[in-house]
Amino acid sequence: MGVRDSGRDIENQSGSSVGQGNPNLTPPSSDPSIVRDQKKGKPKNKRQGSRLRRKSNVEKNVEKHTVLCWMVDMGTIQPNDKVYYKDENKSVLLDGIITRGGIRCNCCHGIVTISEFETHSGSKNSDPLKNICLEGGVSLLQSMLEAWNKQDGSKLQVSNFISVADEDMNDNTCIVCGDYGNLLCCDSCPSTFRQSCLQMNAGGGMIVQSGDALFCGSKCQERKS
Question: Could you tell me where the Basic and acidic residues compositional bias lies (predicted)?
């Protein structure tokens, strides 16, 4: 599975290089800096057992769809729902508003990811899904599991995935938190997840570990066996 290469040569639809036939434009290949870039090989993916660990490379102008967007689509949360980050004593450290693109944080008034919302709260728990709750006290983890159970089939057909190059068949965001980073791949489907989310998911049933293999659900494990 390849990593998306954003440094491809630019060609027009007729197959000729941009600038051909125009003396005022310099073909890309004549620029020494671009020639150097063209000589660079694609980054190599390293496999650990049957798992693939990689650093996602996402362009800023590519629209990101989060796991919150998927939960909204499944009806377990709603846009404009108020959420709170609570510590182990159930004290509210931070509040925000659910949007399809993330959480609107009341400390910075920006749209942030689930993990970033935890960071803004000042908590060091590294367990945002359990500690971010709706007004009724239901955690985002409970809402996620409810959405999972409502969905037909076990593979997470969520919209927190990103448009990537055709040769990159794996998703570029974590299936659990929707964030980027060093991702592990399901051994049966294109879903990916961060290693830190394996511990956060303990007992949740969304990620199944079997020996050296990792699966995003029991059905994926059954298909592989």
Answer: 1-11
pTM of structure: 0.47
Sorted by sequence, the CB contacts under 8 Å of residue 195 that are 6+ apart come out as 182, 184
Does residue 222 sit within a domain?
Answer: no
CB 117 within 8 A of CB 132: yes
The domain that contains 104 carries what CATH number? Answer: 3.10.390
Q: 198 lies in a domain?
A: no
Question: How is residue 1 written in tokens?
Answer: 């599975």
The tens digit of pLDDT for each residue in 171-199 reads: 566 766 666 667 777 666 666 766 666 65
Contact of 216 with 206, CB cutoff 8 Å: yes
Q: Supply the pLDDT for residue 190.
A: 63
Residue 105 burial (CB count, 10 A): 21
Least confident of 35-39, 169-173, 221-225: 35-39
Q: 155 in a domain, yes or no?
A: no
Say how many C-beta atoms besides its own lie within 10 A of residue 154's C-beta: 21
Count structural domains, the chain.
1
Structural domain of residue 95, as residue ranges? 67-150
